[in-house]
Amino acid sequence: MKKGLYLLIIVGLLLIGCNDVTSGEKSVDLELFDNAGIKAKIEKKNFKPEFPTEIPFTVEDTVVSSDPSNDTHSTVEFFGEGNHLSLSIFKGDNLTQGAEYEEVEIGNIQGKYRENKAGTKLLYWQEDGISYSLGYLSKQSKEKVTKEQLIAVAELFE
Fold first, then answer.
1. Which pTM was predicted?
2. Cα–Cα distance measured from residue 16 to residue 153, given in angstroms and rounded to the nearest whole number
3. Which of 27, 64, 72, 80 could hold 59 in an S-S bridge, CB 3.0 to 4.6 Å?
4. In the chain, what is the greatest distance between 2 CA atoms, to the nearest angstrom?
């Protein structure tokens, strides 16, 4: 009986030790994403935003849209496996005002997070004169993406 209990404890500790934990942070499941295609579509802009290298689902399609009369804004939609993630990029300061946000850390950058009435999880931050808004459309998606996953995506921009 004691051998079985010890074996169970050892196996449990091994499983905990084998988790993908980095720097004491909890593991976040993300899929690799090759952002070269979207970088090429936006390279003609008068600013050079960064894009995610990992997404919380396998991306099957992306849609890049820009207003030809407004060279300071682009939107990238990521679709895959019944999921929808949206990235809005603005040159300059364009953080949404008026709503209540939770202050979050994205690496060494301060960001803002909220979930709106439609269930969209929104993460906002600024870096190098560019404002980013990353939104996961929960009600239009199959997966349950967490705030921590959105923050992890934002930390993996390049």
1. 0.76
2. 24
3. 80
4. 75
Quick one: which of 59, 60, 62, 64 has its CA closest to 49? 64
Q: What's the CATH class of domain 31-155?
A: alpha beta
Tell me phi and psi for residue 36, to 5 degrees: -60, -40
Report the distance separating Cα 65 and Cα 77, nearest Å: 8
137/122 Cα distance (integer angstroms): 9
How is the chain split into domains, by residue range? 31-155
pLDDT in tens, 96-150: 666 789 999 999 999 999 998 888 999 999 999 999 999 999 888 888 899 999 9
Q: What is the CA angle 113-126-129, rounded to 5?
A: 165
Only one residue has tokens 């808004």, namely 133
3-state class percentages of the chain: helix first, strand second, coil last, to nearest 5: 25, 35, 40
**Token reading at 136:** 């996961």
Structure tokens at 109: 């950058």
Distances, alpha carbon 54 to alpha carbons 2, 51, 58, 102, 116, in Å: 45, 9, 9, 23, 24
- C-alpha torsion sign, points 145, 150, 155, 157: positive
